[in-house]
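Private note to self, pasted from the team thread so I don't lose it. Backbone tokens:
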């Protein structure tokens, strides 16, 4: 009797494990629910490189028309307004990681499948790397403390752009009227609800490229990610009109159900949905007490994500190899992708950092 067997390395087995990896890795990310195909998504998926060659993608932004127009029978010809289109570029590159067993004798000593544990380990690794990449971009952190070329490996294969110390002052909001990350540190200023309101007001009213909200059940909202210790500062603030107001606003109109943007949210304040993230990066200030974290306020098109040819439907590539006379199993998972915060005319299009101090 002949048995049907899909052994290690079989083409169909590899395809199946690749699909498993994609499902597991993406569902474990924090950012998956924010990715969409339209320009109204917090993270826009771009498909131009899915079916063709190239490692560089140019993203355009058409600015709003600002002319007054012509009334009545006034002459319109000769008074037309030219379209203004800005551009930013991002890159994709192949990133891979792998695990390898010591051998069949070693595998015999443990009550689990090395192949399955490899898949779980790589799924966790990729989920973390996706989240690190997005927050490295929107927080403007180069991750150089993690080693050589870390800005690419941990920031979506694109070097992040830090708004602190550049001309992009419209993409930074300092809490409690501070003027730098250093001041925030020295004066030990925590995030308050007034700062959230001030940040969103600055974000959506800045003269050049104001932040755009996304739609949540017919309501225009922004999203703000807080470092967990900063979120604790908000929860523990017992002053009138602080944490309790977040909870009241969260429940208005039943917005807490039926929309993925609100999944796992802390609440909402002044149309800003609040989320925690352990991937929020530290600021550049130094001090002996506490830390400063770059909480980040985001709107539509805060970043773009793109995949290379053959990585569109299933973004991961799973490979299996046997070494040392088929005694040792090695598996790798790769993705040809890129994530980048969009910056037009030297201004972050959909992201504003809000550095604040915490006692952590």
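Design output:
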């Amino acid at each position: 009797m002949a048995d049907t067997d899909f052994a290690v390395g079989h083409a169909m087995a590899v395809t199946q494990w690749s699909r498993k990896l994609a499902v597991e890795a993406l569902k474990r990310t924090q950012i998956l629910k924010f990715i969409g195909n339209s320009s109204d998504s917090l993270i826009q998926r771009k498909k131009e490189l899915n079916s063709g060659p190239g490692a560089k993608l140019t993203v355009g932004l058409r600015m709003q028309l600002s002319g007054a127009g012509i009334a009545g029978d006034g002459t319109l010809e000769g008074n037309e307004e030219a379209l203004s289109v800005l551009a930013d570029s991002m890159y994709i590159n192949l990133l891979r990681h792998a695990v390898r067993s010591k051998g069949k004798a070693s595998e015999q000593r443990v009550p689990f499948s090395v192949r399955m544990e490899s898949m779980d380990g790589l799924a966790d690794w990729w989920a973390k790397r996706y989240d690190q990449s997005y927050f490295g971009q929107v927080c403007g952190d180069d991750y150089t403390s993690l080693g050589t070329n870390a800005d690419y490996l941990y920031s979506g294969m694109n070097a992040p752009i830090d708004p602190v110390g550049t001309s992009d002052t419209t993409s930074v909001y300092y809490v409690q009227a501070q003027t730098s990350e250093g001041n925030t540190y020295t004066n030990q200023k925590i995030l308050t609800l007034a700062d959230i309101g001030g940040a969103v007001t600055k974000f959506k009213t800045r003269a050049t490229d104001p932040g755009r909200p996304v739609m949540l059940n017919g309501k225009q909202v922004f999203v703000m990610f807080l470092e967990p210790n900063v979120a604790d500062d908000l929860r523990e603030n017992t002053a009138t009109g602080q944490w309790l107001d977040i909870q009241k606003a969260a429940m208005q109109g039943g917005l807490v159900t039926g929309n993925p943007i609100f999944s796992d949210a802390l609440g909402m304040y002044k149309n800003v949905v609040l989320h925690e993230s352990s991937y929020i990066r530290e600021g550049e200030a130094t001090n002996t007490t506490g830390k400063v974290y770059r909480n980040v306020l985001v709107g539509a098109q805060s970043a773009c994500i793109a995949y290379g040819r053959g990585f569109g439907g299933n973004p991961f590539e799973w490979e299996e190899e046997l070494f040392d006379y088929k005694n040792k199993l090695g598996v790798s998972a790769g993705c040809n992708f890129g994530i980048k915060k969009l910056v037009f005319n030297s201004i972050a299009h959909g992201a504003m950092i809000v550095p604040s101090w915490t006692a952590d």
